[in-house]
Design brief:
Largest sheet of chain B: 6 strands, mixed
CATH topology of the largest domain in chain B: Purple Acid Phosphatase, chain A, domain 2
Helix content of chain B: 25-40%
Radius of gyration of chain B: 20 Å
Largest sheet of chain A: 2 strands, antiparallel
Number of helices of chain A: 22
Mean pLDDT of chain A: 88
CATH class of the largest domain in chain B: Alpha Beta
Strand order of the largest sheet of chain A: 1-2
Strand order of the largest sheet of chain B: 3-2-1-10-11-12
Shape of chain B: globular
Strand content of chain B: 15-25%
Number of helices of chain B: 10
Strand content of chain A: under 5%
Oligomer: heterodimer
Low-confidence stretches of chain B: 25-65
Largest interface: A-B, 23 and 29 residues
Helix content of chain A: 40-55%
């Protein structure tokens, strides 16, 4: 029994070697408090008390009104809305709301259920679990570094964090409150909240300020202090030679940088745009889904309806199309940030890829062929060694405060990848087979195949 | 002699023309134009794009209802397929177009292919294309482009698809398919190999090759083919290069265009649909309505000069996404023989250039303009 085990409740993955766990010393908040309840709750999340303590150690009190050192002050200021400037009162209020399960219909789910402080501010599950054990259709993105995102949700259906934070509370699959008034009523009798809202926003409690306060707190979750950052700042010892080779590939042969640009004004490594990389093409017929979506949205295209369809139905797989209803956006999802990517598995909008090796295999073969595949997707012809270098690079993108979890993930993912690489396809990666060739060869071959299936 | 005009010059000229036109308008027409201008201001156009309202010099023709049947066909064009080892992106482009068309509901009557199936006229390239087009659910009609032709002078193409000049009737419309890429022999006296000839034709901005023509032989055939038709017949002509003179250095040009136009001039109205230019291109010369087709391989920028005034220029493509600016489309044929041209841009919202827009010389049914600037 030791830190990492406790951090993760041992719930989703088998515990790896005790030696590694014992060796990890960098993570804050890892020490076990005597008598603390660390068993996961009914949704698998760490307890509120435990999460709060871990967070307190990860983020000691600081001046929230100023840009954190990792982000350029001008850039940071541009991303904080004028009507929701960060103040200690707002952040404290948001922090309380973030962990408050009363905001859910049955009192079991809070923001922290799926954006768990002990699990990279996500839930490390393929898709998230809401009230009454319901599963949504999408992988929970981390709330780390969200201050710099230009649109929210994987399909960008929300224009701001202040707006986004209000949505899951009302989503029937997530926190399940029937409407804003009911959600507000769940906490409005609490005199502490009444006082806190007045102090934070100078007015009576209202639902929009709930969203603002949660967003204010989330904007303080800046975790960018990674080995790669130090390497780029000139410390050549900060990352291994293997990861350095990975960085060259990132900017070259592997083409990562085209969608994951990283620079001082945009350090997240996302272009904030929407791409179909073919993840859901493995099991979706986009055309019939899209036809159904258009019919459904003709009846009701409210933001509430859109939220329900995106989280709770198979139309979720249409991604950005649901927002724009433009054919070009079919199956397209926002490029996620790549900071802290190692500690937020599984990957892709549906959590269908378990390890970073799987992610590399997916891109190496040029994604999954489908009519809406982004034009920039190409087979990459990466060797095993090169894949190893890129994965090594991705393990240098984790903030030092999560170093122990980073190491644990590396062990765990490496072990999983050694056992199974379900998306590895060298023939496609090296263009020995081209995805279209089977179709091009014509009906005769297709016929032959279906015969052999029978 | 046309000279190069900067974007600013063109913009100022269009504004001046608009204001000149406004002064000459009677009250009723003025209201029409202002309504169009207000539509433009209401978001149909970006503030930086050209003024969408021009007052055409010619009066709009009274549109006859026409007695024919309306129908729809799809088009795919300019796929420029290479051998598998060289490039497979263009193959995926053509496959996407085939998927697009196969998913149209209801299905079009047929698909028209606008030429340049191959990049360098090689048998493997043409066979690859033929194999992909077999996946279409509805029949496909083929036209030849210069990239299909100049390696073996059309031998392989014709063995796969038949004659390169032909006509057919469909639901009362007479369709004519021309080979408009006939060049004078520039290769024999230079001692070029077939591949050198092909590479020369495939290039732009070179002084070596001659201009595209329809040629004496085909013009004579065309005259005979159309001879029996009454003047109010519904006629749609396909040509790979535009049957007018746009920009010679890129062969956006047919050298005997005027002679072909003269043959078509006796009809009330004729629609000409062409490939080759890889862009949204619209023109009208008297009774002839011209529409360009999109490419599935790459978009060309607009030529530095000569772009017809009726053309709604599509946006400058996103350099990251090689599919941007490419696409396919549909052609809605009206009972009177005029067409609505639907441009299904893969990365953008579709744009429809309607018959009413051309019939009114750009006064009515102005297509909504892309909200990003052109080249």
């Amino acid at each position: 029994m030791y830190p990492a085990r406790l951090l993760h409740g041992g719930r989703r993955f088998a515990v790896v070697g005790a030696a590694i766990l014992g060796a990890a010393v960098l993570v804050a908040g890892a020490a076990e408090e005597p008598g603390q309840d660390v068993s996961p709750d009914e949704h698998g999340a760490a307890s509120v008390q435990h999460q709060s303590q871990v967070l307190a150690k990860l983020m000691p009190e600081g001046d929230v009104t100023k840009a954190p050192p990792e982000i350029d002050a001008v850039v940071w200021a541009a991303f904080v809305p004028v009507d929701n400037a960060l103040t200690p009162e707002r952040v404290a209020l948001g922090r309380k709301l973030y962990f408050d399960k009363r905001l859910s219909k049955d009192g079991t789910v809070s923001c922290a259920t799926c954006h768990d402080v002990t699990r990279g501010l996500t839930d490390q599950r393929a898709v998230s679990e809401g009230i009454a054990g319901q599963l949504g259709k999408r992988n929970a993105p981390t709330t780390l570094n969200v201050v710099l995102l230009q649109t929210l949700f994987l399909d960008g259906r929300s224009p701001s964090l202040d707006h986004q934070a209000r949505m899951p509370i009302l989503n029937p699959v997530e926190m399940g409150m029937p409407d804003e008034a009911t959600a507000l009523k769940a906490i409005s009798d609490d005199p502490e909240y009444q006082k806190a809202f007045r102090k934070a926003y100078g007015r009576e409690m209202n639902y929009e300020d709930v969203g603002r306060a949660i967003a204010a707190f989330e904007r303080t979750l800046v975790f960018m202090d990674s080995p790669l950052r130090r390497f780029l700042a000139g410390d050549t010892e900060a990352i291994s030679a293997e990861a350095q080779a990975g960085w060259d590939l990132y900017n070259g042969k592997a083409r990562c940088v085209t969608c994951h640009p990283m620079n001082p004004s945009n350090p997240l490594g996302t272009d904030n745009r929407f791409h179909n990389v073919g993840v859901s093409a493995r099991h979706q017929d986009f055309e019939s889904l899209a036809r159904r979506a258009v019919r459904t949205l003709q009846e009701d295209a409210s933001e509430q309806k859109l939220d329900e369809l995106a989280v709770g139905t198979d139309l979720s797989e249409l991604g950005r199309f649901m927002v724009t209803r433009n054919r070009a956006d079919t199956g397209a999802f926002r490029t996620p940030q790549i900071l802290n990517i190692a500690i937020t598995p599984p990957y892709m909008h549906d959590g269908s890829l378990v390890t970073l090796w799987d992610v590399m295999d997916h891109y190496n073969k040029g994604g999954e062929p489908n009519p809406f595949l982004d034009g920039g997707m190409e087979p990459l012809a990466l060797t095993e060694e090169e894949i190893g270098q890129l994965v090594a690079l991705m393990f240098t993108l984790t903030d030092d405060r999560f170093a122990e979890e980073n190491q644990r993930q590396e062990q765990q993912q490496r072990a999983a990848a050694q056992k199974d690489r379900p998306f590895r396809d060298e023939d496609m990666a090296l263009r020995r087979t081209l995805p279209f060739e089977q179709r091009v060869k014509g009906a005769a071959n297709v016929q032959g195949e279906s015969n052999s299936d029978q | 002699m046309a000279t190069y005009k900067s974007v600013e010059t063109k913009y100022m000229e269009q504004r001046q023309r608009l204001f000149r036109g406004l002064r000459n308008l009677d009250r009723r027409s003025f209201l029409k134009v202002s309504a169009a201008a207000m539509g433009a201001a209401a978001g149909m156009t970006a503030p930086c794009s050209f003024t969408p309202v021009t007052v055409a010099q010619e009066p709009a023709e009274g549109q006859e209802a026409g007695g024919g049947e309306a129908f729809r066909f799809a088009y795919i064009s300019d796929s420029h397929l290479y051998d598998r080892d060289v490039n497979d992106r263009f193959v995926r482009g053509l496959l996407r177009a085939v998927d697009d068309v196969n998913n149209l509901d209801p299905q079009p009557d047929f698909v028209f292919y606008g030429g340049d199936l191959a990049q360098l006229g090689q048998a493997t390239e043409l066979e690859l294309g033929a194999g992909i087009l077999k996946n279409l659910k509805v029949p496909v009609r083929m036209m030849v482009g210069e990239h299909d032709w100049y390696l073996d002078m059309g031998e392989k193409w014709q063995s796969l698809f038949g004659r390169s000049t032909y006509s057919f009737d469909h639901k009362g419309v007479h369709f004519v398919v021309l080979n408009s890429v006939v060049e004078k022999d520039f290769w024999t006296h230079r001692g070029m190999t077939p591949m050198e000839r092909m590479m020369t034709v495939a290039g732009l901005d070179n002084g070596l090759q001659s201009s595209f023509t329809v040629g004496d032989e085909q013009r004579k055939w065309l005259e005979q083919d159309l001879a029996k038709l009454p003047v109010d017949a519904r006629v749609i002509v396909f040509s790979h290069s535009p049957l007018y003179k746009l920009y010679k250095p890129w062969n956006f040009w047919t050298d005997d265009a005027e002679q072909v136009q003269a043959i078509l001039s006796r009809f009330d109205q004729v629609v000409v649909i062409h490939g080759h230019t890889h862009q949204l291109l619209t023109n009208r010369i008297d009774n002839i309505y011209f529409h360009g087709m999109l490419s599935t391989a790459w978009p060309w920028p607009y030529a530095p000069e000569g772009t017809p005034e009726l053309t709604i220029e599509m946006s400058r493509p996103d350099p990251f996404n090689p599919h941007d600016g490419c696409g396919d489309g549909e052609v809605e044929v009206h009972p009177d023989g005029l067409v609505d041209m639907v441009y299904e841009l893969w990365n953008r919202s579709p744009i429809t250039v309607s018959a009413a827009y051309l019939a009114s010389w750009g006064k009515q049914s102005v297509p909504s303009r892309p909200n990003r600037s052109s080249y």
